Amino acid sequence: MKINKIHHIAVICSNYEMSKKFYTEVLGLKILSEVYREKRQSYKLDLMVNDLYQIELFSFPNPPGRPTQPEAVGLRHLAFEVDNIYEAVQELTEKGIVVEEIRVDPITDKKFTFFQDPDGLPLELYEA
Fold first, then answer.
1. Which domain of life does the UniProt lineage start with (predicted)?
2. Distance between the two ends of the chain, CA-based, in angstroms?
3. Each residue's pLDDT tens digit, 42-68
4. Does 108 share its domain with 59?
5. pLDDT of 63-74, one tens digit each?
6. What residue numbers bound the domain in which 109 lies?
7. What global pTM score does this model have?
8. Three-state DSSP string of 40-58
């Protein structure tokens, strides 16, 4: 088997409208499609990241909360590459998003920081 690339990442949210606004208006992701699945009482919003990777945003009735402390086994965070981390942090801050202090990866010497989506999912900015 040869894996070519990541096809998509699925995220389940607790408040669909709030998360849709966050991922499209705050992060600026482009909507590919939006479907309401009546049988599952669930929205599925397909989002594009720079025409490369797709994020599927799902809503389900009463999903369980995400364990965070201590960190649980599973996907730890989702990281987005940016050209200028200072500009990206300023843009997020101007939109009311709390962003952690910018740090430097001791292995790569690259700058990075974390912030959260409306459900507390850790998101990372990593400077190219």
1. Bacteria
2. 29
3. 999 999 998 887 999 999 888 887 777
4. no
5. 887 777 667 777
6. 76-128
7. 0.87
8. HCEEEEEEEECCCEEEEEE
